[in-house]
Amino acid sequence: MNVTTYWLQNVRLETGFQRENGIVSGTETAVGHVLVVDGRIESILFEEIPAEDQRPKRDAKGMLLLPAFRDAHIHLDKTYFGGPWQAVKPARSIFDRIEEEKILLPKLLPVAVDRAKQIIELLLGFGSTHMRGHVNIEPTSELRGLEVAQQALAAYEGKLDCELVAFPQHGLLRSNSRGLMKQAIEQGATHVGGLDPTSVDGDMEQSLHAMMDMAVETGAGVDMHLHEQGASGYETMHRLAEMTIDAGWQGRVTVSHAFGFASGTPAQAEQLAERFAEAGISVASTVPIGGLVMPIPMLHRKGVKVELGTDSLTDHWSPFGNGDNLEKAGRLAEVYHMSDEFSLTRALGFITGGVLPLNEQGQRVWPAVGDDASAVLVQASCSAEAVARRAPRIASLYRGQVVSGTL
Question: I need a surface site. Which of 55, 109, 156, 224 has the fewest CB within 10 A?
């Protein structure tokens, strides 16, 4: 990475909350100057930069500085994005989609690297400089999905962080993909994935054991897709929590979607959330809308880490993803009635890994001297406005480098 040393001058930073009758009514900001040295923040000034300081200066022109965004769930290896428009074809079940993939994936592979690069470029433009990408590992594409993602990411070395999940889209057991999955981890995937162990694999216990055993054997994290609801969804998640604790894998397991939380009673959901918090299991959500409403505020209140992601970006599963995680935070705020100033500021944390400019008492905690200089400049007066109005992104910074936009 190139050495980065410069003053980011005239940048707007949040400094505290305004209160009326004990209620947060607004956010105070001040324009200051941030010194970036070798990708980290070395100094923050709210007075003029000394005249004798001749280090380079980049003018933020009063734009608001926010922590860099994180996309917790994006499929990089199979997309229509960058190609001709296509809506999804009707399908009766996930098994129809799997059969569709067996025909479609070989057709997409020749253009997959270029399209993955376009997805990465899109996410960077929206402020996400950390992403967790899921890549198909199954007999149809074998390891080529992983290779596609790795080739695309090589063009962005030093511009973002990316974890890669080896995802058995056609079922870990059902498609007999355990050997391929282990090879994927050996070749650079950071997480073992899984998929609906009861409805797809047909054997919850064996499927979960195969996934967790592989993770422990290889030292990888876990991130499984779980769409199952009702009894099977709850049973799977309780068993996964038990296995996570038994393996000592706390803090290394994620359940993507976790739709089971949207079924059952509130008491059942709260009990399971407490179990997830105990096991350090996080949830990656797309903030579904319609008939399925995830209890995200309850999960957060119970201590479960929840992060937001794109999932599919216009592919054969869904035509709706747009890669904008700030839009996801805004959707979260709308769905869960987080319309007051304080709640809107908290919504931002779901796309920043929990990093927020102000703590709950209104004290400035970010940016701080020594922090990684990864951030996004937005055209907004404060983070609450940025979330509510999906503020335009002006520039994305990764460890001090401008990786998208202009500055």
Answer: 55
